[in-house]
TrEMBL record:
InterPro entries, alphabetized: MetI-like, MetI-like_sf
Topology of this chain in the membrane: Multi-pass membrane protein
A family per Pfam: BPD_transp_1
Origin: domain of life: Bacteria
Domain ABC transmembrane type-1 stretches: 80-288
UniProt keyword annotations, A-Z: Cell membrane, Membrane, Transmembrane, Transmembrane helix, Transport
Keyword Secreted assigned: no
Stretches that traverse the bilayer: 20-46, 79-103, 115-135, 147-168, 190-215, 269-288
Record-level GO BP terms: transmembrane transport
A single GO cellular-component term on record: plasma membrane
Origin organism lineage: Bacteria, Bacillati, Bacillota, Bacilli, Bacillales
Protein name according to UniProt: Putative aldouronate transport system permease protein
Species of the source: Paenibacillus methanolicus
Amino acid sequence: MSSQLRRRENAISPPASLLLNACFILLSLACILPVILVVIVSFTHIDSLVSEGYRFIPSRWSTIAYESLFKDYGTLVRAYAISIGLTVGGTALSVILMALYAYPISRQDYPFRAFFTFILFFTMLFSGGVVSKYIVFTQVLDLLDTYAALLLPLLIIPFNVIIMRTFFQATIHPALIESARIDGAGEFRIFFRIVLPLSLPVMATMALLGTIVFWNDWFNALLFIRTEEKYPLQYLMLRVLNDVQYLRNNVQLASQNPELMSNLPDESLQMALAVVCMGPILLVYPFFQKYFVKGLTVGAVKG
């Protein structure tokens, strides 16, 4: 009886429920409509963009942006395969390494806990800069024009390690670890057989964040990759966009080929690039959505 009364007291009144639903619908539209507009603009003719601007229903449609983008189909497929491989491999390795870092510093009995926590916070506040990073990766490690140069800089993200450490502190009770140790389990067995299965929400959250970081990375490719066959998708898209902008800004070339320049997509090509690049992330996110909020908020009070 008391539980029924409590549910009635906590129930939302119909006007408040209607208002909340209306707010959520507006927020959902604010997130979805820009994506729809990006897709529509990618199929809009350049003349319609110049005369009418961005519209949900343009007067002229065109696929020239995608025709220009997929003209060299093999290069695009190769870049896609490279980005998918880097994202999948880098995310898996990154999550495991960050968990191996976060778990010891979450343990009160670890003697070097304060030292490694300080190192973690220090790297969040200070960075060696691009020049020192380039020297280390090209001259010290000799990783110029290798895929390792795209993986190593993103494997350990200090803020994500802190989130994982907080989750371990709030979720993994010391008595659970002590009982496993009494039963004869070693540290690695405790970590892989007990800690990781209980940490699925934060692991999935870090996997989602890592997927976004690896998939959207183009700057490291700009620094370290010299061979065109090794370009990831994001950097290849950047090169294509820069080439189109160069052609449009080259006055001499424009005067020699006026028909080519009039049909050359610019803004529609940018939107087509966005559509091509955001596809895998839109497919991946639903699989991690149910873990995302829980992985970030569990242990937030304990901090």
